[in-house]
Design a protein that fits this description.
Layout lengths: L10 H4 L45 H19 L3 H17 L13 E3 L4 E10 L14 E9 L6 E3 L4 E9 L11 H4 L2 E7 L5 E8 L5 E4 L6 E2 L4 E6 L2 E7 L12 E2 L5 E4 L12
Helix pairs in contact: 2-3
Length: 281
């Protein structure tokens, strides 16, 4: 029925069976179906949130240094020596940044070898295995491609396993503290070898090398430990180099001058010989 001053409803509007489901009347006292509740992990209807940056966690090894420098900073400020307090505050922030331990997204796949360190690829050479790893049950004889990654004092210094497997050897060799960027640092400097055996028997080794400033190499693993690819295996203080030894028949996927991220950057794929860079002698 039409009401004065208002248009008459159309047939479509006046027929309940033509109404959408949400507006149709419910007969027989039945309850209208409710929208399913979302669980705590259901993000299908969640509003988009902008990504935010936060300072990465600091490794426990660095906290004691931060406490020392922070205490000196507070003492200088309390004594009124702001001229010295501000530089010490900067040093405290640098210590926190040096020992930062960010999370890494480790690539997954058969035969992948990831970078053991953050830094700059400075050397790619074909060499013999170091004497400490030349045994028959270690790397053995033959030649290897050694990829050297130099870590400055501004890089993350947490080192990670390039492959998943079992730690077969951790060998510490005392030595000098010459510039870790030099080729002879692999033989002359204080260093530590970590040998990892994959489930298929292939062995991959890394060498942590101390430099001019670095005076301590700290292992997080011991022989017999089982590690995953990209797992933390050690730390070097303060500024240094890490070598990764690739078996014969495996070429590097990185180039000289390329920057790497530990646990993320792909160094090589076992058995693949197409290289991203020329081998430098």
């Amino acid at each position: 029925m039409a009401v004065a001053g208002f248009p008459a409803p159309s047939r479509r509007e006046s027929r309940p069976d033509q109404l959408p489901n949400w507006a149709a009347p419910v007969a027989g006292g039945a309850r209208r179906p409710q929208r399913a509740r979302r669980g705590p992990n259901d993000i299908s209807q969640s509003p988009a949130r902008p990504a935010s940056w936060c300072f990465p966690p600091v490794h426990p090894e660095g906290r004691k240094f931060a406490v020392i420098t922070g205490s000196i900073t507070l003492l200088m400020a309390w004594l009124g020596g702001s001229f010295f307090a501000w530089p010490m505050a900067g040093i405290t922030l640098w210590v926190l940044a040096f020992f930062r331990d960010p999370q890494r997204a480790v690539p997954q796949g058969e035969g992948l070898i990831v970078s053991p360190a953050d830094g700059l690829v400075t050397l790619i050479t074909t060499v013999q295995a170091p004497p400490e790893l030349a045994g028959a049950d270690e790397l053995g004889g033959g030649t290897f491609t050694r990829v050297s990654i130099f870590m400055s004092v501004f890089d993350v210094h947490i080192n990670r396993s390039p492959v998943a497997g079992t730690i077969r050897k951790v060998a510490y060799i005392p030595g000098k503290f010459i510039n870790a960027d030099l080729d002879k640092a692999s033989e002359d400097n204080e260093r530590q070898h970590i040998l990892i055996e994959r489930n298929d028997g292939v062995k991959i080794a890394i060498t942590q090398i101390a430099g001019l400033i670095a005076r301590r190499i700290l292992p997080f693993v011991k022989p017999g430990d089982i590690v995953g690819s990209g797992q933390r295996v050690g730390l070097i203080r303060f500024g240094s180099r890490v070598d990764v030894w690739l078996p014969e028949g495996t070429s590097p996927k990185v180039a000289l001058g390329q920057r790497t991220l530990a646990g993320e950057t792909l160094i090589a794929v076992l058995g693949e010989t197409d290289s991203a860079s020329a081998i430098s002698q």
